[in-house]
Amino acid sequence: xxxxxxxxxxxxxxxxxxxxxxxxxxxxxxxxxxxxxxxxxxxxxxxxxxxxxxxxxxxxxxxxxxxxxxxxxxxxxxxxxxxxxxxxxxxxxxxxxxxxxxxxxxxxxxxxxxxxxxxxxxxxxxxxxxxxxxxxxxxxxxxxxxxxxxxxxxxxxxxxxxxxxxxxxxxxxxxxxxxxxxxxxxxxxxxxxxxxxxxxxxxxxxxxxxxxxxxxxxxxxxxxxxxxxxxxxxxxxxxxxxxxxxxxxxxxxxxxxxxxxxxxxxxxxxxxxxxxxxxxxxxxxxxxxxxxxxxxxxxxxxxxxxxxxxxxxxxxxxxxxxxxxxxxxxxxxxxxxxxxxxxxxxxxxxxxxxxxxxxxxxxxxxxxxxxxxxxxxxxxxxxxxxxxxxxxxxxxxxxxxxxxxxxxxxxxxxxxxxxxxxxxxxxxxxxxxxxxxxxxxxxxxxxxxxxxxxxxxxxxxxxxxxxxxxxxxxxxxxxxxxxxxxxxxxxxxxxxxxxxxxxxxxxxxxxxxxxxxxxxxxxxxxxxxxxxxxxxxxxxxxxxxxxxxxxxxxxxxxxxxxxxxxxxxxxxxxxxxxxxxxxxxxxxxxxxxxxxxxxxxxxxxxxxxxxxxxxxxxxxxxxxxxxxxxxxxxxxxxxxxxxxxxxxxxxxxxxxxxxxxxxxxxxxxxxxxxxxxxxxxxxxxxxxxxxxxxxxxxxxxxxxxxxxxxxxxxxxxxxxxx
Length: 722
Known about the structure:
Layout: H1 7-13, E1 17-22, E2 25-31, H2 36-46, E3 52-54, E4 60-64, H3 73-85, E5 92-96, H4 101-104, E6 106-110, E7 113-117, H5 123-150, E8 157-160, E9 163-166, E10 171-174, H6 214-219, E11 234-239, E12 248-250, H7 253-257, E13 262-267, E14 272-276, H8 279-287, E15 291-293, H9 307-315, E16 321-326, H10 329-334, E17 338-346, E18 358-363, E19 370-374, E20 378-379, H11 386-390, E21 397-401, H12 415-426, E22 432-435, H13 438-443, E23 451-459, E24 465-474, H14 478-481, E25 493-500, H15 515-532, H16 537-544, H17 549-562, E26 572-581, E27 584-595, E28 600-611, H18 618-637, E29 643-644, E30 647-648, E31 667-672, H19 689-702, E32 708-709, H20 713-720
Parallel strand pairs: 4-5, 11-22, 17-32, 19-21, 24-25, 28-31
Antiparallel strand pairs: 1-2, 1-3, 3-4, 6-7, 7-20, 8-9, 9-10, 11-14, 12-15, 13-14, 16-25, 17-23, 18-19, 18-22, 23-24, 26-27, 27-28, 29-30
Helix pairs in contact: 3-5, 15-19
């Protein structure tokens, strides 16, 4: 195009400009074209990405690289960009970016790879520096272009609310009006910390902006993957059984194929797939499948009987994988004035996300291309495994990211996407919408692992902790070992290890991963030691956190919020817990009561105080903490998934209970400690506070211990009667 007209002439006659930005910010490239297909073609050709698009009327479109599953990423990431760009927020819209990890990825998940993954509470942390740099460079291009056009030094210019201003004569021009004069320098500056906007001038960061995704969700116009309707779309379901890993043998194939609307049966190693003209026809056929199932590694496994085996594994002399080894734990225990040894247990937990798993997939007629519509938390492969599954180039796969109706880690798996791809390949080019029923997801889900944890601690005669040992037995590596560290506590000798055991059960990250069971065990052990030495649990932690002022500040704030030292009603007690998750430091305190006849624990109030570094949107952080705490209460008091002879016993919410509205606390209060540290994750930091705080309140109220999650009424009664 440069041979026909000059770049400037082309820009003048175009209908809009896209500023294409690379991983570290804007690259010296601009594309202007009325035809969006041509823009996409050039985007692909140059291997660039558009973080922002600027229109002549001043409208700004910012591209969000993260999943939006209610955590507010579409608002927080665009706010960071808009802050440094000095945009007019009333003219900002936000769209999902293309799923191209080399361009849109962050290295905060994997130092050697750019990854698009909305998990681990790392979205804001992962993109904070990227969005700041990109926004600042977009602003620089606009200022530099006008400096060239007005023939003034760029130092005389400033920006405010979507305008470039000449401070000398107050001459102003809107961002959209700059398009005809855009000038791209050969090299863009990399901005240092001191060159970014002064926090005292923030207009978006630290303030409560209306979330951009809420209006459409309230009106019902927000599009989730399950809403997708395509011409000639078919429907797919799978029968996977309830024994994980068992292989199927279909006994009535001809009978099923003769059913109305059924087009094809697709065998998988672990399931039988059905493709039909309608979802009702597919589900009706599924009920009539006659399948013989093989044995599997999970055969014979009983989740409530396995703990005896795990206890033996924890007692073995040979060590597992060492996670932490500071000081000399053996010497600390040998020289201790007092030693403690306690086992803690936790059962499997199901994700229980609201929107059923689903994906729409269309494979090209020649099998050499595919397009996917899905609500995904993305992954280490931004194309979700589809290219390798089909054996085609990654550039031939397009992922259309949709809103997610809940994730909690489950939607960072790609199993349901690949199942839909396998079905769509059989009927290409007709698209297929694969839907998991709730029963599918409960019985053949991927759960937070079951574990046994053996903790040992040593103290001197006055109760000062001199050593702390933590052995976790379970399957899943980091799924069970995360959160095992106690870096913030001043304990000279620390040791932690993981001992592997596999039962053939499908596992996955669940909100806060290993932190919930691990912090439950750690914080309960801290209270047990404090109680033995007749020390107040809050005061006991204050000593342990004395060398960690940021952590201590959360403790003091939570204590102040709940009036910790005051007298409360009979049959009520408060429990406390401190932890770190995703870099956020939090203290949680709850007030509970116990019905000693039924064994039902009621949580009346919950307080939390957190230091999450720089907070982009305070109200959203509070909402994340509140939601995490309520989800924690649900998992601690209600949620239990059990397995007998390798088969999941629960099937739906009638026998896998979750927290009801009538069960929630009277109040959940959250506080944010002001901080200038880089932003950290909050989406998962509230959940693991709950189990330990409730158990510690129970210990204070009854003098009895709760050491097995969940705290079912039966277990509570057993503890009371022990």
